Amino acid sequence: MELVDFLKLIYRRKIIVLIFIGIGIAAGLIYALVKPTNYRASLLIYVQRETQPASDQYFNYDGYYALQTSTEYTNTVLGLIKSLDVLQRGAEITPYISRDNQKLEQLSAQIKVVKKAPQLIEIAIDDSDQNMGKAVVLALAQSSQERVRILNQNGDKALTIGLVNDEPLVLVQKASLPFCAILGFGFSLILSLILVLIIGGSPPRPKIYRETDSKLSA
Questions:
Q1: Tens digit of each residue's pLDDT (9 = 90 or more) over 12-59
Q2: Which of 25, 164, 174, 181 qualifies as a cystine partner to 44, CB 3.0-4.6 A?
Q3: Phi, psi (degrees; rounded to nearest 5) at 112
Q4: Burial of 2 (0-12, 13-18, 19+ CB in 10 A)
Q5: Residue among 42, 40, 39 at smallest CA distance from 121
Q6: CA dihedral of residues 122, 126, 127, 131 (deg, nearest 10)
Q7: CB-based contacts of 162: which residues, under 8 Å, 6+ apart?
Q8: How many distinct structural domains can be found in the chain?
Q9: Where does the record place the Polysaccharide chain length determinant N-terminal domain (predicted)?
Q10: Which pTM value belongs to this model?
């Protein structure tokens, strides 16, 4: 089928296409209106290693090594935050975290831990309860700080993690009306075009000539 024929077919079936588009846009808008509001709570933590105080008597490379060590240790902290030990300690800090191991595993999958910079880590969680999200990320940050101190008691005590912001950042995540409407429009348009292709165009009406008509025309 050529493009011209396809466009003619769409024009003949334009009512079907318009009905589908209207339903799709309405469905997208309804979805955006009824979808519950979600919140993302996030917190930034900074991995660092304290350097020795500067001295006028000698030059040392402690600053360079401190930066290199803390950068490498950031990868360890990434895995530590979502570990079972940290989550269990977080459950002791806030009642928003269940102590059940199965639910802790589910929470671990829900938590997003992203390395934003060589020494910067973001802890984030999406939930319909903004208070729950704030409490969870704060508890995980505190639990991670405690765990790092315990692990480094017999190692490098200068390695620590600190909070960049004292309070979590909370962002509202609500479905966008224009986006859902456009999505509904596109999806319904594709469905309507497929349906038009399946149905096809109206068959041409056969021309019936009667004997009397042919005589009259003669």
A1: 888 988 999 999 999 988 988 888 888 999 999 998 876 655 544 444
A2: 164
A3: -110, 120
A4: exposed
A5: 42
A6: 20
A7: 45, 46, 48, 145
A8: 2
A9: 2-88
A10: 0.66
